[in-house]
Amino acid sequence: MSPTPGPLRWKLHAALLAVWFAASFGVVFFARDLQATVAGWPLAFWFSAQGSIVVFIGIIGFYAWRMGKTEIAAGGPSQAALVLGRRRIHRRFLIYVAVLIFCLLGLGLAEQRGLSKAWIAGIFLSLTLVLYAGIGVYARTAKADEYFVAGRRIPAVYNGMATAADWMSAASFISLSGGLYLQGFSGIGDQPGGLAYVLGWTGGFCLVALLVAPYLRALNLYTLPDYFALRYGGRWPRRIAALAAILCSFTYVVAQIYGVGLITSRLTGLHFEIGILLGLGGVLVCSFLGGMRAVTWTQVAQYLVIILAFTLPVSWLAYQQLGNPFAVIAYGQQLPKIAEFERQILASPAENQVLAIYAQRADVLQKKLQDVDAAISTDRMALRRQLRDLGETAADDWRALTIRRQMAAAPKDAPTAREVWSRQLAENRDRAQPMGGMPVHTQAFSGDPAGSPAQQALFTSSRTNFLALMFCLMVGTAGLPHLLTRYFTTPDVSQARQSVAWSLFFIALLYLAAPALAVLVKYEVMAHLVGQPMDSLPAWIGQWSRDPALLSVSDVNGDGVLQFSELKIGADLVMLASPEIGGLPVIFSILVAAGGLGAALSTADGLLLTIGNALAHDLFFEGENGEVQATRPVMWSKFALLVVALLAAYTAAQRPAGILSLVAASFSLAAAGLVPAMVLGIFWSPTSRAGAVGGMLTGLCVTLFYMASNLSVVRDAVPGVTGLWWGIQPVSAGIFGVPAGIAATVFISLLTRDGRRPTPSL
User: Fold this and answer.
1) Predicted TM-score (pTM) of this structure
2) Domain 7-330+456-521+583-751 fold
């Protein structure tokens, strides 16, 4: 093939990228104007939640078909010559499917016979972890080609399935539906979210297919930094690319191990930290022993668990509510009903009474924060007075015990009080907003473009932040090392293109169902919980409210009836509790927990392998691939993987920021640090070594600076640090890092001629 795309391919790229841009950024920009309702669906909501994903799949599928047809006509390899042992793989996969279904049916029958939930959870968790570990042991290898790229023998459809499992992390499985439940279409205020994640995490595969994956696969690389060394030469392009890969992958893997701990502790009842170590053992057995070969087939096995765990509860909820198990098709019927419930909630006197109480609590906390020391003293004296009065009147012991607990839990010093009361103030202010701070579900962007100047400014900020987050997620997808490395495992370039198409197809099965689950659960809450007496709420409310971070219920106005704002649901609850909400047997709850565990484990496998390979292959041995030294990078990669896994587990045990925010940060880092120099190196031959180094450093530094400068601890410690630029939230820092990286790469390349190397032949 030619070093860069020829005229025909340029036209194909341009046409498909134009369709991609119109189906994503074009639709979103005009979403507030697309108010028509088609077959009961709000047009903008349908296109953003479903239509765009279908278009993205069509773009990648057409591109793979068109390029494959061209290559066969030019005498390229046929599909029959590329597929090795496919029948045997199919047979093994079908056996695995049958065994998994048999285990589920068997445990379901055992539940009916009285087997306890603890035993069911223990058996199913053990079976899945033993399966994953068994694959790791069976696929163990010390050969570099097998360890780094699975021998380049993975057929496109199975590589697509493994990529989907790798991609559908804890953020996608656990938090995405909950985020859509809480954030609606576009997020809360100027904080982006909602369907930006669905569009960003799917639309980015168009960039992977059109701009990156086939070109990298043609070079027979082991790691992504290998490309920078091959394209630009010297040590620094490889080193900086390796450091960028480690940085974004470590941020990502901490979120996954956090999810491992969350799911494992829920599934087994163990402490969070013990859950992390237990799940981490399953990760290490696969990636440590067999590298990419073991990880690939483990992820294929995990994908089936993940997709069954997600789609079965949402299908059951759809069948219960609508009589149609095809939730993706049917859930639009609930959107008008939810809109009517929202209008009733906004007009409810009891609801407004609850909001007024939250506002009053916020005012009290605000006054306390004006003089923290005096407030601590006043609160302590008031509690002592209540305790003394109770003693004089011989009050019930439980009331005295309650007051003593309040005294023990009260802040003892000013810094602690300020932190606790500030957090409570923010929470009460949020809950004092209409609908507890949640937006109207199908409304595109906050504010009003035809309202007051403040409403217009809020609308502009909301839309801008939505587009910025979507941009960072899409471009970051094209630069994530653990994703791109998956396409190095296919037999050839044509299979790599097909693999991207299969990847998005398998991913879409979950991403199309996530908005459906959010809508169905919201309808269940509004129709069957709100307005019910507190003493007649379903059993799952009591079960999950043991963890206030997931669910809290309080009769704020004391009327004995649940109002919408008196119920606080955490993002992780929507998926984890979906079987209980639908009234499914316990085995489905265990399956959901196992699916979440599989999602976190599969992504953690790929990320830890990427970090270990970058440390050993790219930093320590700097691409050494000789026959005699072939085993040394593999052994050092295994050692680095173990160390990084323990470090990531320690970081996750500190319970850092939420899963979605951690993941989004890693996308911005990948987008700014790797994509400009990588894509320009493929398509623009004048790109120089100095330009690539300058571009990567500039993109990373700008992104990291913007993230750090918006941390409260940094602003407090460093006077004069600026806040937001043009109102863009720090989660979308890559919106500044990517253009800065492109500009630096182009500018320095135009100034420097030394160190230029021709684009490798593709």
Assistant:
1) 0.88
2) Sodium/glucose cotransporter (1.20.1730)
